What does this fold into?
Amino acid sequence: MKRSAFAVWLVFLIFFVISLVTNILGSIIPNIIEDFGLSLFVGSLVTFSFFIAYGVMSIPAGVLLERFREKPVLVASFILAFVGSLAFATSPRFGVMLPSLFLIGAAFAMLQVAINPLLRVAGGEENFAFNSAAAQGIFGLASFLSPWLYAYLVQGLQADEPANGLIAALSRVVPESLPWVSLYWVFAAICLAMLLVVALARLPEVVLQEDERAGAVVTYRELIRRPVVWLFFLGIFVYVGTEQGVATWISKFLETYHGYEPVAEGKTAVSLFWGLMTAGCFLGLVLLKLFDSRRVLVGFAAAAMLALALALFGPAQVSLWAFPTIGFCISVMWPIIFSLALNSVDRHHGAFSGILVTGIVGGALLPPVVGALGDLLGLRYGMMVLFVTLGYILSIGLWAKPLITNATIGGAKKATS
It folds into this structure.
């Protein structure tokens, strides 16, 4: 099995690009709603179009990976992402934005399926846990930087004179009234560069393990008959829905209720949301060595509900800091829910993983629910639906009965009764 430091760094770079493009949506939602004259619900279809692609493509991507292998899937993914980015950049209309984001989301679903097995092989199985944690750190870094890229481009294009060649070039192709569209010219250039790098790269051969395979139709039929599969699918669904339900509406909420500018304080709050989520992951690693993961999940879910209450009903300065704190509190939820799910079944982990990843579609459906309720009752009350999703996540820590619990200091993994 051939190791490749280059392939490891390539995977890290792909994680960075995925995060940079994905997590810009929360920053630009206020611009989209205002510039295209949309209701909250219609504006939230931006998030829907992107994340519904994960629900559509996650399992088919696994099938494509087994048939065509990593490199063709990576190349096809960046072609899709390039086409999607360029389509909206050259024709910045809301009707074009939705299918463009679907193409980008489908591309990133394919990338997510392909790069984890590649990282395992390229870096060595004994280093996989470390490299995976490093990749998540890089993912978080890009999420933190993404709103700052948005602010840099928008403020540069709104200045009287272009500050550099990049801004000057973008000013010639970006409508003066839509400076944030410049992001998609940058994303198109990034995806084209990544396409060329991947096409020319020599990647190690990957032999998929059982838990990385898509699974046969009969396997999925067996799994979907088990209630525990649906319960954990719903857990992933509401987690991603909560994450995107907060990130999508932070900037718009702060603008609506406290008068904060999206390109200033709103940008900072969204950036800190993702930054503190990354920081929370490191604290979570420590806590999971000290306590049962179910207790950690209950504690962090309760803290997230408190932070949400302060964000929605606190004064301006409290709200400004409470929203990023939610990111810190939900940081450990994905890995805990995912590991509890896989440790609750004794076989078919690859197919079960595919079902769980399909739960990312929650990121498509929860923001429109918030938007629709926001149009009827106001955004503050629309976002109160997130108390329900956080409550369900808390309940997982109470009813989950994994076959194997997480190893802690002074304790060993053991079967539960």
Observations:
- The first helix runs from residue 5 to 22.
- The mean pLDDT is 88.
- The radius of gyration is 21 Å.
